[in-house]
Amino acid sequence: MNFPERAMTFFNKIRFELWGIVGGAIVLAGMFLSQIGFTGLADEPYSMLNHFVSELGISVAEGAWLFNSSLIVGGAILAVFLLGTGFYGGNRAAKIGAIVGVYAAISTCFVGVFTADFLAGHSVAAMGFFFGGMIAVLVFTISIGIQKEGQVKIPKKIVYPGLVVIGIFAAFLIYIFSIPRGAFSEGENPLIPLITERPAIWAMPILEWAAILGVVAWMVVVAAIILKNKPRAAN
After folding, report:
1. Nearest 5 degrees, angle CA 99-CA 2-CA 79?
2. pLDDT tens across 122-143, in order?
3. Rounded to an integer, what distance in angstroms lies between the CA atom of residue 189 and that of residue 225?
4. Helices 92-113 & 64-89, crossing angle to 10 degrees?
5. What letter does residue 49 receive in the DSSP assignment?
């Protein structure tokens, strides 16, 4: 038995697809539950329409411990799922996607470690997640699309939601890097603006939320499909 076969035996034994569902649920629960009782710098409640995701993890946020812990734990669990999915997919693109996906998942953990209170480390971790997540979904989507007839393990129709997630990631990153330098005052950051006045509806955090929710939902859906189809694929 060669290394890929031994690795797949291991990931089958630990039910890697369940790790994807559990990891995604932990991240989602942390992001939504930590909004309860949130009070911002202007004593305002949290709104996904004008607050960035990482603001849930800053020191003044009541649920910061829950948010940051969910990223650390959920990110680590999702790394196992993504690595297992790479071996499950079998082709070279799936393995490359797994490597990039693990990088994005580890970056997620570090977003929880280096909160927005530590801006330099946080920015590096956040960009690692956004770029890594976009590239991982892109490569996994390619790996799904190029599956040979008779060897399809993940339905090719999953290519379409993958393309949607990639498009949202790209839109968010283009938006971020299109902001002119100097548009924000000293001490502010376009990703994590700790400001007391903000628009009621702000495109940048909306796109950020869409990208994060999109990629987590994509992973949970893929994990659920593998959970359903794996026994038949093994026959």
Report:
1. 25
2. 989 999 999 999 999 999 999 9
3. 39
4. 170
5. T
What's the residue count for the chain?
235
How many angstroms separate the first and last alpha carbons of the chain? Answer: 18
pLDDT in tens, 32-72: 999 999 987 777 889 999 999 999 998 888 899 999 999 99
The owner of tokens 């502010």 is 188
DSSP assignment, residue 47?
-
- Compute the CA torsion angle 171, 173, 174, 177 (nearest 10 deg): 160
Residue the block writes with tokens 């989602």: 28
The domain total for the chain is: 1
The tokens for 196 are 């007391």
**Separation between Cα atoms, residue 54 and residue 24, nearest integer Å:** 17
The answer to whether the CB of 164 falls within 8 A of the CB of 23 is no
Q: Report d(CA 139, CA 150) in Å as an integer.
A: 21
Residue range(s) defining the domain that contains residue 39: 3-234
Place of tokens 């490359």: 96
What does the block give as tokens for 220?
Answer: 């949970």
